[in-house]
């Protein structure tokens, strides 16, 4: 590949972050990280769930949702400036006066949003005595649409965090043509230790897709702790890149010829006997 990255293999990077309470601080961290991008193009940058605001109270996130357009504008400008595609983790998109969607947008390198997915499975879970319980559905409206979009990297399927536990969604994404599945996340530490890596590997192996999981890590300003371990897997389930903790990028390149060889040699979709309805 030459210096400008023209004709280079499509590359993907995932930014691991420890987002705080203030959206402007989180955007500043993102801008700083984008100063050190690789030169390869096309380049897709993937951000973790809730990268813009990791709040103490859902009401604060609701307030951010009411001025989300200004942040989408800034992200759009960053895409144009750096000539990148961007999966903006999740952003809170207004639903009504009490709830927002956990929306995963894909921006192209002209700064246009080409696909949007609203998190379908919401984290209403008792984790453990120390971590406590989550009631995401109290403040988040669940989505109801399976989203796959074509891109220079391949066909991209969108999911978010807790969706990872629901193989039916991933199977639906493959049936809609997905080749790369993004899983922006903010896993808890106990559930991450027990389930994160095996779930991601299982989804890559059973969907025969690249699986790209940008994660939140560390102790956040709101007092919560997240598991980190951002991970990229090949359609064969191999780990391509991972980062246990700390701010920074991991990266991989996409080889769709290899993906199609894996699917030709082991045609799981045509062997599939269970075709459940989509929702
Ligand atoms: O709302 C925010 O600020 C950020 N979002 C989250 O932290 C979300 C919803 S509460 N977390 C998860 O889905 C964890 C899933 C998980 O840990 C598991 O499946 O084990």
Automatic annotation (TrEMBL):
GO terms for molecular function: deaminated glutathione amidase activity. The keyword Cell division does not apply. The keyword Hydrolase applies. Its EC number is 3.5.1.128. It comes from the Bacteria. InterPro entries: C-N_Hydrolase, C-N_Hydrolase_sf, Nit1/2_C-N_Hydrolase. This is Deaminated glutathione amidase. It comes from Pseudoalteromonas haloplanktis.
């Amino acid at each position: 590949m030459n210096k400008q990255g023209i004709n280079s293999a499509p590359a993907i990077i995932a930014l691991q972050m420890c987002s705080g309470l203030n959206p402007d601080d989180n955007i500043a961290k993102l801008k700083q990280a984008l100063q050190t991008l690789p030169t390869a193009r096309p380049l897709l940058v993937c951000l973790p769930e809730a990268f813009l605001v990791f709040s103490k109270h859902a009401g604060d996130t609701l307030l951010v949702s009411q001025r989300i357009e200004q942040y989408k504008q800034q992200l759009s400008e960053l895409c144009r400036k750096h000539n990148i595609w961007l999966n903006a983790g999740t952003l809170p998109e207004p639903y009504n006066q009490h709830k927002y969607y956990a929306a995963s947008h894909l921006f192209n390198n002209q700064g246009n949003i080409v696909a949007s997915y609203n998190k379908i499975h919401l984290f209403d879970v008792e984790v453990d005595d120390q971590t406590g319980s989550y009631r995401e559905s109290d403040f988040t409206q669940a989505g109801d649409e399976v989203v796959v979009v074509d891109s220079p990297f391949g066909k991209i399927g969108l999911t978010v965090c807790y969706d990872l536990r629901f193989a039916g969604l991933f199977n639906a994404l493959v049936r809609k043509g997905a080749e790369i599945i993004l899983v922006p996340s903010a896993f808890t530490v106990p559930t991450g230790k027990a389930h994160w890596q095996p779930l991601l590997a299982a989804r890559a192996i059973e969907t025969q897709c690249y699986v790209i999981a940008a994660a939140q890590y560390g102790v956040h300003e709101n007092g919560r702790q997240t598991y980190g371990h951002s991970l990229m897997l090949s359609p064969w389930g191999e780990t391509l890149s991972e980062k246990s903790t700390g701010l920074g990028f991991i990266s991989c390149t996409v080889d769709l010829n290899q993906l199609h060889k894996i699917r030709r040699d082991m045609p799981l979709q045509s062997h599939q006997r269970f075709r459940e309805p989509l929702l």
